[in-house]
Amino acid sequence: MFKQRVITAIALVLGLVALLFNLNPLNFSLIVAPVVLLAGWEWGNLMGLESKRHKFSYIALLALTIATAALSLDLFGTLNISLGQTLCLIASILWAVVFLWIQGYPSSAILWSPRPILGLLGIALLTITWVAIALIIHQPHGPWLLLFAFAVVALADVGGYVAGNLFGKHKLAPLVSPGKTWEGFFGGILLQCILIASMASFMPEKITTVMLVALVIPVSLYSVLGDLFESMIKRHSGVKDSGNILPGHGGVLDRIDGLIAALPLFALLFLLLSPF
After folding, report:
1. Distance between CA atoms of 96 and 158, rounded to whole angstroms?
2. Residue 3 in this model has a pLDDT that exceeds 80
């Protein structure tokens, strides 16, 4: 299983890098949309949508919402950065509410688990994830910036996995995700500190270490939040993985759950903190 997981991860990283540096920002934004729709299909599974008609209807609604966002942002013209920031702010606030739901689980399930509410959450969060990707990739040096955002989330995941397996004793959220530990959480933070120190050594003078900390640490925390939220939904739904399309990893949603929470905050903070 571990070998299969590593092979799949390497293939995903190579594919991502190839697309990032060989497509222009518009085409990259467009090609990401089907991946978001696939995640939406798996969200439908977690909602308990059983018939293909209901799932296709849900995907059609998600596609319509993404298309509306693309037109509202003027994706094919001059990107409306202000609207994108507002949407990312809304998502970041919504994730703060999700944090309270995670703390209150299982009692909080009455607030988020009804199918219409969970469905709207999926539409909103997945659409704004796509918006965040479009915002980031359209920035100067967008491919490198988006790769940096992915690295922050990946390091939080890797640090949590390695430190949790080696030292994990104290459960982070036992009712939501029994496998996650505080030791794993701090392992992820340690890797973020190493990343910040590495980046600070060759960043332009305008980008200070304080700015990197203000960007990386909150985004890392939000990535953990996204992971916990999907774990909570899966636990409530009684499923292990959101899908089985990625060998060794489960579904697309299982791989991007941290990104769904982290990317809107990354886009928002970068645009607020950027000195350029």
Report:
1. 23
2. no
Which range of residues forms the domain containing residue 64? Answer: 2-273
Domain count, the chain: 1
What value does the mean pLDDT take over residues 132-150?
Answer: 95
- Kindly provide the b/e burial profile for residues 99-132, where b requires at least 16 CB atoms within 10 angstroms of the residue's own CB: eebbeebeebeeebbeeeebbebbbbbbbbbbbb
Q: What local confidence, expressed as pLDDT, does residue 251 receive?
A: 84
Q: Say if residue 100's pLDDT is above 90.
A: yes
CA distances from 136 to 112, 177, 227 (A): 29, 30, 21
Confidence of residue 65 (pLDDT cuts 50, 70, 90): very high
At 241, is the pLDDT very low, low, confident or very high (cuts 50, 70, 90)?
Answer: confident
What residues contact 63, with CB distance under 8 A and at least 6 apart? Answer: 33, 37
Burial of 226 (0-12, 13-18, 19+ CB in 10 A): buried
3-state secondary structure the chain: CHHHHHHHHHHHHHHHHHHHHHCCHHHHHHHHHHHHHHHHHHHHHHHCCCCHHHHHHHHHHHHHHHHHHHHHCCCCCCCCHHHHHHHHHHHHHHHHHHHHHHHCCCCCHHHHCCHHHHHHHHHHHHHHHHHHHHHHHCCCCHHHHHHHHHHHHHHHHHHHHHHHHHHCCCEEECCCEEEEEHHHHHHHHHHHHHHHHHHHCCCCCCCCHHHHHHHHHHHHHHHHHHHHHHHHHHHHHCCCCCCCCECCCECHHHHHHHHHHHHHHHHHHHHHHCCC
Amino acid in position 28:
F
